[in-house]
Design brief:
Its cofactor is FMN; Mg(2+). Helices cover about 30% and strands about 25% of the residues. It has about 400 residues and is α/β, with parallel strands linked by helices. It binds flavin mononucleotide (FMN).
């Protein structure tokens, strides 16, 4: 994972309001504030009076370096932090945790404290992370309020399921701070950088069938490709995801094509490639397939069995020469000589950029949430990233596209 000093400043120059309301999860809002500050943004914290019963404003003030606003009339002469001035400055407001009470007030337009008044004056995106007892969360009045807020365009970070502070199990636990901050980050980076891009992403493993019930495959989970697809979409790109079999849901708003074999992947890519501007090949495509794929199940007759394999078509080697106008980005998962092998692959396949993916005893990226990569440009520049989530790696790769 990233250590403190290596955190990427992906929210530099952004102004965020963090609203904190009176639930048991207030202590997690402290972590959300810390992560937001680490990512480079300015944060003004607004607490409801009930929230201050759980954690004192001093903690938020010390971390944000700003006064915390609690009361509507505490600073009648400070026009810099009245609700209108604050609303005008903000790029985004998030409410963490959001109580059942504040959901009701927001949904009805009640403005009887600073936070609910500010909510009515805000024109920027609002992210709400509810947290409460599972029975409260399932209450039809709370669900109706959430529906109303969604219809009004508010972004809801759904609570998780599990053990709650009130000793019962169910849905209502605040989403993890990192999830909330990632959500905020993708919302703020939305619809800008990659607006006119059409990006084809291949993901997942392929399956090469020996007979109808057996295949040769690899442990690729598809997570890296799906993270890139989701992030590219959130940055405004049109995304075409061509994926081998995975357990993942295709990201919202993405054009999805499911395939099984390397040949199917190549055929599908051929059908859609004409219109795309960029191709990012994260798929772990099988190099070989059984020479004969039996139409019927092979019976267990002998003690041993010899299978002859033949080469699959190499997707990059086939397509790059045919479409030199596209920007081609490859991935290289390597156990040895990481950078050197990746550089050779980039040269051999005439790619514009390659992402070298370390596979070692310490870093096994297949199926993991994190990975450790080196991004190598065609002109030889290397960017070595520390181990980080695949979503963060996706952002790092995609931020480079306009410079290629
Ligand atoms: C110990 C304790 C924990 C609470 N936790 C929650 C909670 O997690 N979610 C919630 O909606 N309300 C919770 N409440 C109830 C709220 O504090 C209460 O509804 C309050 O009016 C909320 O005010 P606010 O929304 O202005 O902060 C809790 C109350 C207590 C005493």
């Amino acid at each position: 994972m990233l250590n403190e000093s290596e955190t990427l400043k992906t929210l530099t120059d952004r102004e965020i309001i963090l609203g904190v309301t009176g639930g048991i999860a207030v202590y997690k809002a402290v972590e959300v504030l810390r992560l937001l500050i680490k990512r480079g943004c300015g944060v003004s914290v607004v607490m409801t009076p009930h929230a201050t019963e759980f954690v004192r404003p001093l903690t938020f003030a010390a971390l944000s370096g700003r006064n915390v606003i609690v009361k509507m009339f505490q600073n009648p002469h400070d026009m810099q932090i009245d609700h209108i001035a604050l609303a005008n400055r903000a790029d985004l407001m998030c409410v963490v945790p959001a109580t059942a009470n504040i959901l009701g007030k927001f949904a009805c337009g009640i403005a009887d404290d600073f936070l609910s008044t500010l909510f009515l004056a805000i024109t920027c995106p609002v992210v709400i992370a509810p947290a409460m007892n599972a029975n409260m969360y399932q209450n039809p009045a709370v669900q109706r309020n959430l529906d109303t807020l969604k219809k009004l365009g508010m972004e809801i970070v759904e609570p998780g399921e599990g053990d709650l502070a009130c000793k019962i199990k169910g849905k209502g636990r605040l989403a993890e701070p990192e999830t909330i901050v990632d959500f905020i980050e993708s919302l703020l980076n939305k619809n800008t950088l990659l607006k006119d891009y059409i990006i084809l992403i291949s993901a997942g493993p392929t399956q090469e069938f020996l007979d109808p019930v057996r295949f040769l495959s690899n442990p690729s989970s598809g997570k890296m490709g799906y993270s890139i697809a989701k992030t590219a979409r959130s940055m405004g790109a049109h995304v075409i995801l061509v994926s081998g079999p995975t357990n993942l849901e295709p990201p919202q708003g993405v054009e999805f094509h499911g395939v099984r074999t390397a040949s199917e992947m190549l055929d599908t890519i051929k059908k859609v490639i004409a219109s795309v501007t960029h191709v990012i090949m994260t798929a772990a495509v099988a190099c070989y397939r059984p020479k004969i794929s039996s139409a019927k199940k092979i019976k267990k007759e002998n003690n041993s069995m010899v299978v002859e394999f033949e080469r699959n078509p190499d997707i990059l080697q086939t397509l790059v020469p045919q479409y030199p106008d596209k920007i081609w980005i490859g991935f290289a998962a390597e156990t040895d000589n990481l950078v050197e092998n990746a550089r050779n692959k980039m040269r051999r396949k005439n790619l514009n950029m390659i992402v070298a993916n370390e596979v070692s005893a310490d870093h096994y990226p297949f199926g993991a949430e994190t990975s450790k990569v080196v991004i190598i440009d065609k002109d030889g520049k290397e960017k070595m990233l520390p181990e980080m989530t695949k979503d963060r790696i996706a952002l790092e790769i995609l931020k480079k596209l306009p410079k290629i």
